[in-house]
Amino acid sequence: MSTALRILLADDDLLMRELLQTVFAAYGHEVEVFDDGAEAWAAFNEAPAPMVVLDWEMPRMDGLEVCRRIRDHDAGEDTYLLVITARSKAADLEDVLKAGADDYLSKPVTPSDIAARLRIAEKRIEVATARRRAEEELRKARYLAGVGEISLALQHEINNPLAALLTTAEIVKQGMVPAEEIPAALATIETQAKRIVEVLKRLREVQTDKSVEYAHGQRMVDLSGRKP
């Protein structure tokens, strides 16, 4: 059996609600039941669900309006929407799909009809979950790659001026610089410090896709300040 789903079910027909709820529960899914579309939409808006089953014609808010609102919701892109309707004209069914529904069932429905749609929904939700997981892993990989490129760039751009700064400072500290050359040594320290500051400034302004090949296929963020 697939992973248990949280399903929102809205239908103003008591017998239809009981039939749908019974089938969904038999497959191990958690069902929240409502008798109008407005309540179903409020529940989704508060806590989005992977599957929503809606009657078309309901008081306060019909099923198609709920579909449209869910599709406009930040978390509604992958929600599986199933509309149940007594209408069967081609134009009516086209309206259902235009509202964002994934599928529909024409009344009267049987338990086998519901079970078949449920299997389709389970597979679609499983695929969408796997895709989101892969996208998240890719995002993490890109982030870590970016951290590596920035680290290599800082090492490459800061090592030389930092080494010059520390070496000059140590020579001055040890009294190895003649008095008349101390102003020049201090100027060198200042110059190298400014070089480091400039690199850090460019780091704040860097574009994430602005990288160059460094060595052996390694890439680093370009902090050189050179124009392309």
* Largest sheet features: 5 strands, parallel
Count of individual domains: 2
Query: Mean pLDDT, nearest integer?
Result: 82
The secondary-structure class comes to alpha/beta
CATH superfamily of the largest domain: Response regulator
How would the global form be characterised? rod-shaped
Tell me the β content: 5-15%
Helix content: 55-70%
Low-confidence residue ranges: 211-216
What's the helix count?
6
Q: Which class of the largest domain in CATH terms?
A: Alpha Beta
Oligomer: single chain
CATH domain fold name of the largest domain: Rossmann fold
SSE order, one letter for each helix or strand: EHEHEHEHEHHEE
Radius of gyration: 32 Å
**CATH-scheme architecture of the largest domain:** 3-Layer(aba) Sandwich
Strands across the major sheet, in which order? 2-1-3-4-5
Strand tally, please? 7
**N-end to C-end Cα span:** 57 Å
EC number: 2.7.13.3
GO molecular function, one term: phosphorelay sensor kinase activity
Domain Response regulatory: 6-122
Keywords: Phosphoprotein
Question: What's the helix and strand layout?
Answer:
Blueprint: E1 6-10, H1 14-26, E2 30-34, H2 37-46, E3 51-55, H3 63-72, E4 80-85, H4 90-98, E5 103-106, H5 111-173, H6 182-205, E6 211-213, E7 219-221
Helix pairs in contact: 1-5, 2-3, 5-6
Domain Response regulatory: 6-122
Protein name: histidine kinase
Keywords: Phosphoprotein
